[in-house]
Design goal:
Elements (H helix, E strand, L loop, with lengths): L3 E5 L3 E7 L2 E9 L3 H14 L5 E8 L5 E5 L9 H10 L5 E8 L6 H20 L1 E14 L1 H14 L2 E2 L3 E2 L3 E7 L4 H12 L4 E12 L4
Antiparallel strand pairs: 1-7, 2-3, 3-6, 4-5, 4-6, 7-10, 7-11, 8-10, 9-10
Helix pairs in contact: 2-3, 4-5
Length: about 210
């Protein structure tokens, strides 16, 4: 089982034009191979008048699955370059479709590879790659007098935190890598002089700025 991976935050789109041919890239996070196939079908329907719908996807989890298609373009000029955009950035659980509207001018093998790669890379950039890490998630409950200090120290120490909920006390979730759970617990107690409560909730993947 993976403890961390890199994926996309949201759907991203791009447009790349070369000698009157337009290449529209659409990148999206997907949770499974089935969802990736549904995404491809959705884009085919949205751009049903396009000449080519080149795609690639990588699905992680227990076993890495991947698939790509040139969709009528010369072999190796579409699907594999799009797949390379994902694999070279170590992006999983993501799919890209690049739609081509033919402009009447043949681009040649090199031109097609460059165009499909560029449209895919721009779509991925728009979709915002992000790191996901499996964390131990805890519920924190702190008095108002200690909450700001605790949240600041947790941020400085690099722990993941959710938005706070303000009720009788301040409640939010914080996450640590498995090897840092004791460090998190000690920080909570020290920063609040023991006035905060910490309760284990679950293990889950969360977005992190960098993998630790």
């Amino acid at each position: 089982m993976r403890d961390s991976y890199r994926t996309l935050k949201q759907e991203g789109r791009s447009s790349y034009i070369d000698r009157k041919s337009e290449f529209i890239g659409i990148a999206r996070p997907v949770a499974s191979a089935d969802e990736a196939e549904r995404f491809v079908a959705e884009i085919r329907s949205e751009f049903s008048d396009a000449r080519h719908h080149v795609y690639a996807w990588i699905s992680g989890g227990k076993e890495i699955q991947q698939k790509y298609s040139d969709d009528g373009e010369p072999r190796g000029t579409g699907g594999m370059p799009v797949l390379d955009v994902l694999s070279h950035q170590s992006i999983e659980d993501a799919a890209i479709v690049v739609v081509r509207y033919f402009g009447g001018v043949l681009l040649g093998t090199g031109g097609l590879v460059r165009a499909y790669s560029s449209a895919a890379a721009q779509a991925v950039e728009a979709a915002i790659p992000q790191n996901m890490q499996k964390l131990q998630i805890y519920r924190l409950t702190a008095p108002y007098s200690a909450a700001d200090k605790l949240r600041y120290q947790l941020e400085e120490a690099g722990f993941w935190q959710s938005e706070a909920v303000f009720a009788l006390d301040v409640e939010w979730e914080a996450g640590s890598a498995p090897g840092r759970s004791s460090e998190l617990s000690d920080l909570v107690q020290d920063a609040t002089s023991g006035s905060a409560l910490i309760e284990y909730l679950r293990s889950d993947f969360m977005p992190v700025g960098k993998l630790v």
